[in-house]
Each structure stands twice: as C-alpha cells, then as structure tokens.
Amino acid sequence: MSEAELPEVTTTLVYRLGGLGAIASARFAAAVEPLGIRPKHVALMAVLSAGAAASQLELAQTLGVVASVVVGLTDRLEALGAVERLRDPDDRRRHRLSLTPAGRTLLASCTAAATALDAELTASLSPAEAQSLHRAVGVLASETGLPA
Amino acid sequence: MSEAELPEVTTTLVYRLGGLGAIASARFAAAVEPLGIRPKHVALMAVLSAGAAASQLELAQTLGVVASVVVGLTDRLEALGAVERLRDPDDRRRHRLSLTPAGRTLLASCTAAATALDAELTASLSPAEAQSLHRAVGVLASETGLPA
DNA sequence: TATTGTTATACTCTATAACTATA
DNA sequence: TATAGTTATAGAGTATAACAATA
Fold first, then answer.
1. Cα angle value B37/B22/A146 (rounded, 5°)
2. Which one of A2, A46, B22, B111 counts the least CB within 10 Å of its CB?
3. Looking at chain A from residue 90 to 129, which residues have their Cβ under 8 Å from any Cβ of chain B?
C-alpha cells in the first residue's frame, strides 16, 4: 500500500484561485458599483471595444452567458448611454451593439479602477514576482478561453 | 492634460483572476460533485481538519458566510457521516463539530481531486513558472485572509 | 437580557421556456 | 420552419429576520 503525500487542499492552486477569484470579483464589483454597473457590464463593453462580437447572441456566446442575460446587461448600458442598439439592415432580427463615446469613457474608468486594484493586490510582491504572476495568469486565461 | 496609457481591462490581474477563479471553482465543483458535496463543504472540512474553528458560529466567521449557511453545510456533511455535531458541555448552546474518519477520507479524496486539477491547470507552464505562480498565489491568499 | 443554533423568508443571479418579429 | 431578441418563470445560492434553547 503506497501512501502518497498530499498537501492541504487549501494550498492547492484550484482552491486558492477559486477563493482569490471571488475576492478579486468582489473588489472589482465594489470599484465599478459607483459607476452604476457590475463586472459583467464591463466584460460586455470590453468585447464590444475589441470588436469581438456583433449581435447579442454572439455576445452571449463570447461572454459565456445565455441570451436573456445580454438583454438585461444591454438595457442597463443603453440607459446609461454607453451602448446603442442598431438594427442590422441585412437581417432586421439582429441588433448590432455599438459602444458610444460615453461608453468608451465609462470603460476607461473601469480600466483605471482595475489598474489601481492591481497595484493594491500586488503591493506585497516584488516587481519580478508581480510580473511573473501577471504572465502566468495571462497564459492560464488564454488557455481556458476566458472572455477576453 | 496628460493621457495615461492604460492596458485593456481584460488584461488586468483583477479581471483575469475573477474569470480564472470562476473557472477554477466550476472545475473543482464538478470534481467533487460525484462525492455529493460542493466546494463550501470542502472548505468547512478543511477548517475542521486544521482545528481552526470549534463552534458553528466560529466556522461561519472563518468561512466568511452567515451562520444559517453553516447549518445547511453541516446538515449535508452529517448526513454523509463526515462530521458529527457534539454538544459543548461547557456551553450547551454550542455545537462542537468534529471530523469523523469518513470525513477525513472524504477530505483526502477532495485534496487528491484538487491536486489532479492543479496538474491539468499548470500543464502549459514550465515547472519554474508553475512554482512561482503557486508561490505568488499563496502570498495573495494569505494576504487577503482566505479561509485557509 | 444576550447568545447559539435553527427555521422562515426575501433577494440576487442566472437558466429555461414561451412569445414576437423577422427570415 | 427556423432564428434573434424579448419577456415570463423557475431554480440555486445566500442574506436577513424571527424563534427556541441556553447562558
């Protein structure tokens, strides 16, 4: 009978990434909440800004949510004047969403907030550690097909 | 007017940690689901295993959830024979939770599953990258006061 | 009167399903 | 008839509040 040496579950990467991710999401949510939006709204605007989706259905697939969720997110962003719903002339069932100048400004504010949080988060790491963390997380993010 | 250069929000650490954490949690949840439990149950057992809490109220504080949530988690684990509720003789309002041998076995299975997921997750990283990622995540985890 | 655990209730988020309009 | 968007409904998860037992 072999008795494999196992670490504590709380020290594993998946476990810690799960907990850390929840904290990161909460902090980011708190940072953008004064702007009247939540992280999913930011994700939607980021996809639009990258030109990575046209119709709401495509948006839903890219974001990994269901179509009805995109409706609610878009309603909110439209009310804020951050996005516009434009009928696709080629297929009038479709809405082409477009980021307005106000939306770009809003997205920039979110990016600034995220950058500030990054600085807080990595304050206790050396520059080299912070950089290698950033790089490793980037690799995992692209590998897992994150809505980026 | 200075125009600061900002990265895309999707490349920031908080944003990616949020998304990555959601994926990690989902994978871990899928891995322990056949065992009849969810990540929070694992967290509760881990705290008990570490002797980091006695009463259900302490458990709630350590886990960062409300007391009524601990009731449900404990109900489930008790039904599985993984934990026991023992009245505290010093204060009969309190339940001292104790991990049974079956609970230790269950926790070990979860740890093994998490370790396997770690290997998958870091497969595309070099050993050195994986190790530095693990270390950096450990620093952030302890810094943010994760239930560990 | 204060506190531990429990139960009952409400709220948030998301998914499923039914519906409208276009194709 | 099939599809894009919308609306209506239901489920999971968690928080708040009321309650019972004990201090």
1. 140
2. A2
3. 107-108, 110-112, 114-115, 117-118, 121-122, 124-125, 129
Tell if the pTM clears 0.85, that is, is over it. Answer: yes
Query: For residues B147 and A19, is the Cβ–Cβ distance under 8 A?
Result: yes
- The residue among A135, A32, A126 whose CA lies nearest residue B11 is A135
Q: Are A106 and A35 in contact (CB under 8 A)?
A: yes
pLDDT digits (tens, 9 = 90+) for A65-114: 999 999 999 999 999 999 999 999 999 999 999 999 999 999 999 999 99
Please report residues of B whose CB lies closer than 8 A to that of A139: 124-125, 129
Supply A116's token pair.
């500030």
Q: What is the dihedral of CA B140, B141, B144, B146, to 10 degrees?
A: 170
Q: Does A10 touch chain B (CB under 8 A)?
A: yes
B43 vs B70: CA distance, rounded Å: 11
The conformational region for residue B84 under phi > 0 = left, psi -120 to 50 = alpha, else beta, is: beta
Mutate to test the interface with A, among B16, B124, B144 (most CBs of A within 10 A): B16
Mutate to test the interface with A, among B5, B8, B10 (most CBs of A within 10 A): B10
